[in-house]
Predict the structure.
Amino acid sequence: MKPIPTPPQVDDFSADAAEDPDSLAFILSNDHGITIDACAEGGLWQALLTAEFQSRMITIIGAAMAHEGHADIEIAIRFTTAEELATLNETHRQKTGPTDVLSFPADDDDFLGDIALAYEVMESQAKEMGISLADHCLHLLLHGVLHLSGHDHIDDDEAAVMEGLEIQILGQFGIANPYDGLANDGLANIKDMS
């Protein structure tokens, strides 16, 4: 497995707030040209999407993108509801009900793709796993970004590579192995993320 590059320092991080002070839209970028264009649906996300969380998010996603050889690329992230994820899941995957995260790769040199996260599903999983909401959200974002980069977990070999990379990157930033101690049914729920 390739070593994870040293993360950019905090001064490599910038965030632009939307013009509307009540808006939960923001753009993050780092010195390697990784840009995250994010928006949040409703007030559910407001307490989580702090400046500190945003800094951690661009740092972790930046490390994953550097590992994958991406620079000068944009990713769109939609922080939304279980209801919207259920609609997207049915429309794009023909699966009923909400999921935690969905990734939609783009066929574009400058745009890697879209990620959508469901707050209620993520919150329920974090409680069940006994981990912080912020750490679980960062894991789901990393998981989604790795899907955009072509990783998958359809078979055991692919899953081992993807999970190993997630564990390595998250560990570099002080986040415990998200798969450690999960029961088989819990692991199946996490592995169903796409």
In short: The longest helix spans residues 51-67. The two ends are 22 Å apart (CA to CA). Residues 10-191 form a domain with the Collagenase (Catalytic Domain) fold (CATH 3.40.390.30). The chain has six helices and six strands.
